[in-house]
Write a structure and sequence with these properties.
Helix content is 41%, strand content 18%. It is α/β, with parallel strands linked by helices. The chain has 2 domains: 246 residues, Rossmann fold (3-Layer(aba) Sandwich); 89 residues, formyl-coa transferase, domain 3 (2-Layer Sandwich), CATH 3.30.1540.10. The protein has a 6-stranded parallel sheet, sandwiched between helices. A 4-stranded antiparallel sheet has the order 9-10-11-12. The chain has a two-stranded antiparallel ribbon with strand order 6-7.
Length: 377
């Protein structure tokens, strides 16, 4: 069965998460992805741990379906081989350190001049220009600069979100922008230069709290398992030792929640009528919901919330997600091959009906170097 990106070749000068996650999704859709790695060491994520048949959890997540080629781009021979690969490629993606492409003589503008049909993606931490453009950028650093850590955690105790949202968000912008550029090239015959800053991505995700600050002077505070902008919206202990997560997103839902928790007095009180008012009385309303949930089991709470039309969930740990019946019964798992044996992996979240969901293997470092040299030299 054909895939939508069959025939597309991607050369990736990638490391860590942002570029590898983007190119893995392109590989999922059928693109050939040639991963260029430093001889002897390779991508740094190869060495984070060895929990998956001797390979790291990060590397297996990010790199199945790719070819691995060891090239020392500081040598003329290997740099020349890279140029031969780029001449045949459709897309090149890089998230190397600041200035690395310039030092190698393959800056985006130069690549666009030499290869006008090539789609060139240059990922950086902070973008070109400005006082931070020279700095290395990792997920936690960019999230810190972007303010997301200060709206996560609890007051006085900021926290980095457990998911690397700067890396993952950047990967999704790369992925979607490459697809748009391929579509545009079909119409114009021209490639594109796509420069994506991780700080710009985090700033975009901060949109609501930015608007609150600009227009109302509100500097949002973190509220743990909740939202600084919506109340009630949080996690509440249950009678059977679990945690129910409940949320209202409108005044109508608030009225229904009051009925559910048998508090008509709250529904009738004008000082709680609108969400902005309820945010001002967060502690009192959270306490009312918590008192109700503490006398009921999780199953009873979820049944009541479903009947009332109130959004609800169970607070799960990682093991609960791995065993989640919603993933299992919807056939969301597949096996990918690694040098040490098969490993479970989730299917691409965005497959259209009829698109194949199989995946290639996770490559050992330099597994495809000889074959690629023979192909392009």
């Amino acid at each position: 069965m054909s895939k939508p990106l069959d025939g597309i070749t991607v050369v990736s000068l990638e490391q860590a998460i942002s570029a590898p996650l983007a190119t893995r999704h392109l590989a999922d859709l059928g693109a050939r992805v040639i991963k260029v790695e430093q001889p002897g060491t390779g991508d740094s994520t190869r060495h984070y741990d060895s929990v998956v048949h001797g390979m790291s959890a990060h590397f297996v997540w990010l790199n199945y379906g790719k070819e691995s080629v060891e090239l020392d781009l500081r040598t003329d021979d290997d740099l020349g081989l890279l140029h031969k690969m780029l001449a045949a490629a459709d897309v090149v993606v890089s998230n190397l350190g600041p200035g690395a492409l310039n030092r190698l003589g393959i800056a985006p503008d130069e690549l666009a001049r030499v290869y006008p049909r090539l789609i060139i993606v240059d990922i950086s931490g902070y973008g070109k220009g400005g006082p931070l453009d020279h700095k290395r950028a990792y997920d936690m650093l960019v999230q810190s600069e972007g303010g997301s850590c200060t709206i996560t955690g609890t007051p006085g105790h900021p926290a980095k979100p457990g998911i690397p949202i700067a890396d993952c968000g950047t990967a999704m912008y790369v992925y979607s922008s490459v697809l748009a550029a391929l579509y545009e090239r079909e119409k114009t015959g021209r490639g594109a230069i796509i420069e994506i800053s991780m700080l710009d991505v985090v700033a975009e995700f901060m949109g609501p709290v930015i608007n609150q600050y600009i227009h109302a002077g509100i500097d949002a505070e973190p509220v743990g398992m909740g939202s600084p902008m919506i109340v009630p919206y949080g996690a509440y202990p249950t009678a059977d030792g679990q945690t129910a997560v409940l949320g209202t997103t409108s005044d109508r839902e608030w009225q229904r929640m009051c009925t559910m928790i048998d508090r008509p007095d709250l529904a009738a009180d004008e000082k709680y009528a609108h969400n902005a008012d309820r945010v001002e009385h967060r502690a009192a309303l959270d306490e009312a919901v918590a008192q109700w949930s503490a006398t009921r089991t999780l199953d009873d709470i979820r049944a009541a919330a479903d009947e009332a039309g109130i959004g609800n969930a169970r607070l799960n740990r990682v093991g609960d997600l791995v065993d989640h019946p919603q993933l299992r019964e919807r056939d969301r798992w597949r096996d990918v091959q690694t040098p040490g044996g098969p490993a479970p992996a989730l299917k691409h979240p965005g497959l259209a009906r009829g698109w194949e969901a199989t995946a290639g293997s996770v490559p050992a470092l330099g597994a495809d170097t000889a074959a690629v040299r023979a192909e392009f030299e």
